[in-house]
Amino acid sequence: MGQWRACWLVGRMEQSQLAMNIRRAAGMAIVTVSVTATGVVGQVQDETSHPARAYQRQAEVYDLFLQSLRLENSGDITRAIEVLNRAAELDVEAAAIPAAQASLYARLNRATAAIKAAEHALVLDADYGDAHRVLGLTFAALSEQAAQQPASQRSPDAETYRRRALTHLEQAVAADVFDARITFSLARLYVETGEFDEAVATLEPFVRERQEFVDGLLLLSRAYAGSGRLAEATEVLEEAVRRQPRSVRMLSALAELYQAEGRWPEAADAYERAAARRPSDLNLKRRWVALLLNAGDQERARGVIREVVEARPEDGRALYLLSEVERRLNNFGAAEAAVRRVMALEPNSARGFFQLGAIFEQQARYADAEQAFRAALERDPLDHQTLNYLGYMLADRGERLNESVALIQRALASDPHNGSYLDSLGWAYFKLEEWELAETYLRQASEQLSQNSVIQDHFGDLLFRRGRYVEAVEAWERALRGDADSIDPAVIKRKIEDGKERARR
To answer: Which of 1-10, 54-63, 185-194, 318-327 has the lowest mean pLDDT?
Structure first.
């Protein structure tokens, strides 16, 4: 494993822990033995010939531990390890010695040596808590390091590191080893493995005692969010932002939570504050623009993304966002010009052709749109966004409905819980007059995306055709209260009046 970045996860062992190691290594009986800390200890002769020599050996081990502690405190970790090596030669059965060595190796970021020493300690004493501590933190750090690598470069041992970290950290906790890093690392691993309830249970008492530790608040927020407790996740992260109002990391995380809750203005404000703290971060600005688009603030989004494009004119992602902004503002010429630049930069990419198809479809240029969508699928046959868009376009026009269903089913296979795709499939079955199937999918979409006006309109149409007029009216009323995207309120109001009239008959 060589050199590695343990960061603070392993760090400096607390002196109280090392002192406990000293007492355990030397034995409580020798505490009363007078010892000195005066340099090199000579070779011990046959100690079985006289009981005093056994005590002398223990005293020398204790003396070496004290020397190691002083050297560690002075920052001379290498010499501290050398001294512990001499202690190990004198006492080959004391688990505390290799455990202490492991902790020092960890401070030097020598993972292989740390692991070897800690595992040797556990051979001597399988329940030795501090050895479990070092192993757990070391493997946790290696796991974190692996997770930060691109998927193509990720070590095949990453999952092994994670499992071993969990095992040893849990054993350290069982052995009553106190180290705040154990709690934090264990909770982080629970979050990574999707064990969110365990992460919450681990972190809540930890955070209550350490409100100033904002990384703990951030991790607890992630655990709450993973458990579906978004309100609590947001509350905790808001506290973290109050403690570190200039933290871009905290503000970005808070923006994402607001977005998950549909609190668009607060999300936009959090991103704006983050971008103000780091104006050169173009990735941050791109995320901000995407949020503004979802919030419906197209003009503001255009201003921000133009800044990004001006700073980085060859940024394909920024150009794509600019095209999307212009499309939503019905500036089709500008939208097409931007996406043509994307296609020139990325000739083999599907997304440029997808965006071109969306621009054509919005202009009712359906043949051109279909051609562009199929060109996107030639480049990426599994692009579920394109599969859904093309399938929905065919369904909405009542064209080639069986192909439409097949396309949307392929999209759902890649993203089975996507509310928009569920709506598309339900709408295709509606056009096929497959009422039961249509209701199955449209109901799921309606429940999942209750604020989407188009989906509520579709569901209302289905219920109306099935003669359930009161339910249809309720769905159309939700459509009016929703985001109002791509619906004509006047048409919906006429449907509501018709539904009410039918219900009265």
So the answer is: 1-10
Token pair belonging to 286: 């791109």
Cβ proximity of 431 and 463 under 8 Å: no
Over range 434-444, report the average pLDDT.
97
Over residues 300-304, mean pLDDT: 90
Q: Quickly tell me which residue has 């109306």 as its tokens.
A: 464
Residue-level pLDDT at 180: 83
Residue-range domains of the chain with CATH: 1-173 (1.25.40.10), 194-279 (1.25.40.10), 288-374 (1.25.40.10), 382-446 (1.25.40.10), 450-505 (no CATH)
C-alpha distance from residue 130 to each of 96, 175, 186 (Å) = 8, 9, 15
- Position 475 scores a pLDDT of 96
Per the CB < 8 A criterion, the answer to whether 464 and 499 are in contact is yes
Q: Which residues are 3's β-sheet partners?
A: 110
Alpha-carbon distances of 272 from 190, 256, 269, 276, rounded to whole Å: 32, 13, 5, 6
Q: pTM higher than 0.90, yes or no?
A: no
Q: Is 418 helix (H, G, I), strand (E, B) or coil?
A: coil
The total of other beta-carbon atoms located within 10 Å of residue 74's CB is: 10
83 close to 97: Cβ distance less than 8 angstroms:
no
Q: Torsion over CA of 222, 445, 326 and 291, rounded to 10 degrees?
A: -10
Residue 466 in tokens? 């099935």
Burial class of residue 467, CB neighbours in 10 A (0-12, 13-18, 19+) = exposed
Residue 149 is given by DSSP the state S
Q: What is the mean pLDDT of residues 170-194?
A: 85
CA 123 → CA 17, 27, 95, 96, 471, distances in Å?
A: 20, 19, 8, 12, 69
